[in-house]
Design goal:
The protein is an alpha+beta fold. It has one helix and eight strands, in the order αββββββββ. The chain starts with a helix and ends with a strand. Keywords: Signal.
């Protein structure tokens, strides 16, 4: 009887630890980074510092999004969910055509958006 009780207790502890690990990783993806919400890709104002400014454009849905009036240098941050395939692409054509720059998950950069006419969020 004592062996069954110890086994049940060990199983309960292991299950609780596994649940805590899964919850912790989900919460990490929900965090905003430099004001960009979890699960989104963000564009910041022209010539702004990503550390002190807030995004002007926030994209949540996968696929192409056409840009307008995005001239000069802007930070672009990929704060999507998912694995390595959750990328953001910057494209010189409208509707996600002729993508020339790929931003990986949890990365950002300062890009000249004058020749960029669309941004694509790729599904993980």
């Amino acid at each position: 009887m004592r062996r069954i009780t110890r086994s049940a207790a060990a199983l309960a502890v292991a299950t609780a630890a596994l649940a805590a690990v899964n919850t912790g990783s989900a919460q990490a993806n929900d965090r905003p980074v430099y004001g960009c919400p979890g699960g989104a890709a963000c564009i910041y104002p022209q010539n702004a510092d990503i550390h002190t400014s807030t995004p002007t454009n926030i994209y949540y849905s996968y696929g192409a999004h056409n840009l307008s009036n995005q001239l000069g240098n802007h930070y672009v941050l990929n704060n999507q969910y998912g694995g390595a395939n959750a990328t953001v692409q910057l494209c010189t054509g409208y509707n996600g055509v002729n993508c020339t720059i790929t931003i990986k998950l949890n990365e950002f950069g300062n890009y000249n958006l004058t020749p960029i006419n669309s941004i694509v969020l790729n599904r993980p």
